[in-house]
Fold:
Amino acid sequence: MKRFKQFGTGILIFFCVFMLCGSVHASHGKSLAKKKGILLVAFGSSEASAQISFENIDKQVKATYPGIEVRWAYTSHIIRNKLAKQGKVLDSPEVALAKMQDDQFTHVAVQSLHTIGGSEYHDLRKTVGAFKQMGGFEKIILGYPLISTQKDMEKAVDAIMKNIPAGRKKNEAVVLMGHGTHHPSNAFYAALMFQLQLRDPNIFVGTVEGYPEVDLIETLLKQKKIKKAYLVPFMSVAGDHAKNDMAGDEEDSWKSVLTQAGISCVPVLKGTAEFDEFVDIWVGHISGPLGHF
Ligand code: CO
Structure:
């Protein structure tokens, strides 16, 4: 009788486990095997010089997550069209995620390679949200851009301080060129300048398309009687803005404006993603506060 009871319990447990597996199995209708992938999303650039940045990010992500497939998407359709004409096909985030769904990925970490959470990042949130709602993946998460939290800001300040151009003297300025945006997140640039100046009062942050503009930076440099400035992009790549709007010979480039004001300029054509300290911040966001991947 006792033996029979044990046998009965055994059967019961067997059935429970069987049912449980069955329901898990049915819940996503596919195999139980996990297929993890990372999708890196950048604005994109058609400049050859930008590839150094992208390759550095790709290398560091693969080193941190060995064995996980890494794919790329560019948000700018102008850049994608330009590259397509050169035979380089890059997907939008929407197409890239649809392909990953079709290729039966179960866990996808999307990582924004933007500098701040502006319009591009928020569009990406909508896209990721749509895929989440559709239930195409078991899990899909989105990592924050470079500067999102105060901790990120502190790490970015450290990275900037560590990579100040060699040979720069304390009475010379370092002028960072951010992209800038109409989005409320534009406030990050002035906040960054404030926190940098607590460490070094001659570091400035301006933007091409937002606030602070170069005219304000010029005024601040003149007030401090600064005679020489290193111009450094605060964008992941040294692309079109760095080459033309910052270091170009046109009348309204930052180099021209500041030179006109009697400040000699030394442009440095390197994007932030060429430096490991910045890439570490992005890579840290892949599994970061949005859940374990
Ligand atoms: Co732009």
Q: What stands out?
A: Residues 179, 241 surround cobalt (II) ion (CB under 6 Å). The CA atoms of residues 102 and 246 lie 42 Å apart.
